[in-house]
Amino acid sequence: ACLSGVAMSEQSGDDGPLHAAALQASMEWATQALKDGASLNERNTIGYTPLHRVAEDGIAEVAELFLKHGADTEARDYNEATPLLLAAGGGHVEVLETLVRHGAKLTALDEFGLGCLHYAAESGHTAAAKWLLAHGANPDHEEESGKTAGQLAHAWGFKETAEVLNAASLAPSYHFDESKSAEALPGDLPKGATPLFPAAVEAAAKASEATEATE
């Protein structure tokens, strides 16, 4: 048997049948694709394996299926990110639990030196950050340009996440002062930061200036 025509028609041109099943969060399609011999090592044009796809989207049930069939927890995408890093970036605690139970490494770094806590921090995923810290992730690790995850969360304006990470860190903290803007961190921006990074810092500064002007 093959995947249904609907499933096959909805997958993107660079995705294999397991990527398509992952994209649709379908255990039925994933199970059938595995029976049909689809490869868990197949990659799309951005280097995602099927496990990367379900990790990023937070589909723990399908991730468990792939892992039981031998999916590589340390596979790297085009940015050298592992499935665990993508799960952290999405704040998907259940997927993180599943990956770690199957041996995924919390010490994995992408090509910019960003670790799992950095991925959680830059999107403000406090619950994921707490889970990672509780399971041994290092809050003092600095990415390529010298920022800890707590410093990165602060720069993005994620107060709660920054406080959790900085409380666990031995590195200098960037504490929030409600009466002042969140200052940009010294040095260059992290090379893994998106174009929204400086905009987030600028927006925080403008909001603070507007507040001060009305006082």
From TrEMBL:
Which Gene3D superfamilies does this entry report, sorted A to Z?
Ankyrin repeat-containing domain
InterPro entries cross-referenced by the UniProt entry: Ankyrin-KH/SAM_domain, Ankyrin_rpt, Ankyrin_rpt-contain_sf
One family from Pfam that matches here is Ank_2
Q: PANTHER family from the xrefs?
A: MASK PROTEIN (PTHR23206), PROTEIN KINASE DOMAIN-CONTAINING PROTEIN (PTHR23206:SF7)
| Lineage summary | Eukaryota, Haptista, Haptophyta, Prymnesiophyceae, Prymnesiales
Kindly indicate where the leader peptide sits in this chain.
Answer: none
ANK repeats: which residues? 46-78, 79-111, 112-144
Establish whether keyword Repeat is in the entry.
yes
What SMART domains does the database record attribute to this sequence?
ANK
GO BP term, pick one: innate immune response
Which is one Gene Ontology cellular component term of this protein? cytoplasm
Question: Which UniProt keywords are listed?
Answer: ANK repeat, Repeat
- The name on file for this protein is Ankyrin repeat domain-containing protein
Q: Does the keyword Repeat apply?
A: yes
